[in-house]
Amino acid sequence: MKLLRSLLVTGLITGLASTAQALPITDVVQPLSPVTLGTGVAFPYTHDLLAHGFDPLSDTLTGATLTLDLTGPGGQPLAIRFDGDQVFNSNLNTLGPITVTLSYLQADGLLNVTLTKGGGAGNSFSFVRSTLFADGVVGDPGNDIPEPGTLALLGIGLLGGVARLRKSRRA
Q1: 42 vs 116: CA distance, rounded Å
Q2: Residue 44: predicted pLDDT
Q3: What's the rounded Cα separation, in Å, for the pair 108 and 110?
Q4: Is the pLDDT of residue 152 over 80?
């Protein structure tokens, strides 16, 4: 009876063990000095989630926020493209944190961003920093492969149960 209870407890602990973890990633792109953008001038850069441990084959992104730090006079038109698709087009004075869905990052873990100042020959603005906050899950809990440590723990429990059973039969 005690052996059965020990096996059930070991099985329960093993079954509850999971490799899924939260995946908070913060990636910052900051040039050595601010980049000045005039009318029609594009500034491309890339956020690389792979450099922070993101694995596009097993990890899942659930959302992200991109924060741009720009300086310059208000009212300047700004267009932002993510991987070639236009996501934002407005005046600089309305710019703030931009929340985007990053489902297309699953393929390569990269976010290519292009900033372009539109409008006439008016004032320019400067790009100071871009911060990407990405949330997700490491691994796919539904398809986890048991880790060697988990299997070793189960094996030790089974060996202990067999040893106890043999000892009780001898007595």
Answers
A1: 4
A2: 93
A3: 6
A4: no
pLDDT (0 to 100) of residue 28: 92
Residue with tokens 């990053």: 102
CATH of domain 22-138: 2.60.120.1200
Cβ within 8 Å of residue 57, ≥6 positions away: none
* Partner residues linked to 132 by β-bridges: 27, 66
Residue intervals of the chain classified under CATH 2.60.120.1200 are: 22-138
Alpha-carbon gap, residue 34 to 129, rounded angstroms: 8
pLDDT classification of 45: cutoffs 50, 70, 90? very high
pLDDT 10s digits, 61-81 = 777 878 888 877 666 777 888
For the stretch 119-129, pLDDT in tens is: 765 667 788 88
CA atoms within 13 A on the CB side of 73: 6
Q: Is the dihedral of CA 135, 141, 144, 146 positive or negative?
A: positive
Sign of the CA dihedral running 50, 52, 58, 62: negative
